[in-house]
């Protein structure tokens, strides 16, 4: 398959994704993965596998999403691409979270957050820290959840009204509990 054919498939996949046709997007991303496999383009294939994973997750198929992204973090690590490695870890963690495998999800989200911190990718790190906070809250780890959410808000450049309110409430909680 030619590079132009692969680009056309990828474009159709993104159009379907943007139109919230996640099943259609997943099928197109899967076609792109196959085409890139035949062309022996491992980095591009790993990227398409991550796109496939996100589409499958949005389509309500977390196990398939997990399987699609599995191993891509290692491809990116081998290439020294820390940003895409962190994104792949977050994709895997998101699928695990949907599968209610919270401890495994927390482990991968923490690895992702550390990589995002290493490369100073603040917005993506903030998103991952918010996901960590949510899982910790589900697990009854309220203090850890607050700390994670506070760290997430620290990373954001622009706070929404909800974020500002949350930061205010967290400040009150810190003052009442004697925390700095």
TrEMBL record:
Keywords (A to Z) from UniProt: Coiled coil
TM annotation in the entry: none
Gene3D superfamilies recorded: Tetratricopeptide repeat domain
Key word Cell cycle present: no
Keyword Coiled coil: yes
SUPFAM superfamilies in UniProt: TPR-like
Xref: InterPro entries: TPR-like_helical_dom_sf, TPR_rpt
Coiled-coil spans in chain: 19-46
Protein name from the UniProt record: Tetratricopeptide repeat protein
């Amino acid at each position: 398959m030619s590079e132009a054919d692969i680009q056309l498939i990828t474009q159709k996949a993104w159009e379907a994704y943007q139109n919230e046709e996640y099943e259609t997007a997943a099928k197109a991303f899967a076609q792109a993965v196959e085409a890139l496999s035949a062309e022996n383009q491992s980095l591009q294939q790993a990227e398409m596998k991550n796109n496939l994973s996100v589409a499958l997750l949005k389509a309500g198929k977390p196990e398939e999403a997990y399987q699609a992204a599995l191993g891509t973090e290692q491809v990116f690590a081998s290439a020294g691409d820390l940003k895409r490695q962190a994104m792949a870890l977050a994709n895997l963690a998101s699928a695990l979270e949907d599968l209610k495998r919270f401890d495994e999800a927390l482990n991968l989200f923490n690895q992702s957050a550390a990589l995002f911190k290493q490369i100073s990718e603040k917005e993506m790190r903030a998103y991952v820290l918010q996901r960590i906070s949510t899982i910790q809250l589900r697990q009854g780890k309220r203090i850890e959840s607050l700390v994670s959410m506070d760290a997430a808000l620290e990373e954001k450049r622009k706070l929404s009204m909800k974020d500002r309110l949350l930061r205010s409430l967290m400040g009150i909680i810190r003052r009442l509990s004697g925390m700095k």
